[in-house]
Amino acid sequence: MHKVIAIDGPSGSGKSTMAKKLAQSLGLLYIDTGAMYRALAYILDKNNIPCEESPLLGDFLAGLNIKYGENDSQLIVINGEDLTHTIREHKVSALASEFSQLPQVRSFLLDFQRKLGLFEICVMEGRDIGTVVFPDAFCKIFVTASPEVRAKRRLDQLKEKSNTSSDLTYDQVLKDVIERDRLDTNRLVSPLKVAEGATYMDTSDMEEDEVLMKLIETSRLKGQEVGLSI
Ligand code: DC
Fold this sequence. Notes:
Blueprint: E1 2-8, H1 15-26, E2 29-32, H2 33-46, H3 55-62, E3 66-68, E4 76-78, E5 81-82, H4 90-99, H5 103-116, E6 122-126, H6 129-133, E7 137-144, H7 147-161, H8 170-186, E8 199-202, H9 208-225
Parallel strand pairs: 1-6, 1-7, 2-6, 7-8
Antiparallel strand pairs: 3-4, 4-5
Helix pairs in contact: 1-9, 2-4, 2-5, 7-8
The structure holds 2'-deoxycytidine-5'-monophosphate.
2'-deoxycytidine-5'-monophosphate binds near residues 96, 97, 100 and 180.
């Protein structure tokens, strides 16, 4: 059993916001694996590494220095470049969706994530945490919402976080959400799916407070079952 609260779900399901709040409420380390895929995709693209399996990609990954900072002010740094804010730009979402299909990229981040999750009880959030990274996590939760609700949330979030996305329309974001779902659920390696034994939460009609309460309740209950008091 690993001391990990694994939270998975599609883009814009609100899982990042809620996973972060859950970690804060319980005083636990929060690990955002989507930020890692985003940062890596950005760096690979910037260095003109083609989005395909290759020795070139392998060599590039082997030479990378990646640091996960565990706080908002410096969340992710690769080769000394602070990518905390860059990774929230809309174009990076598409890059991450493409590069995260590659087994070489996934296996590189899998190692990194497994090491990070070993030390203390943590909330780790992504697409494959409960299925691949920590299938024996003591608590697994799948958070989702309808594509329409997720597109609206994503648009609000983008407007808040990035000043480059003001010209994006709801229809464009909805289209992107649907396309990313298709890529995330159909990829050959670690597709997005509900992990065995996971608690399923559809948050389309739920307020944030309600989602947080349910996450806390589920985490505590699962913790009790394995003798972890959180
Ligand atoms: O959660 P997010 O939108 O920040 O994730 C960015 C991309 O990374 C998304 O296309 C899916 C991918 N991802 C993944 O494949 N596996 C993870 N554990 C986390 C994210």
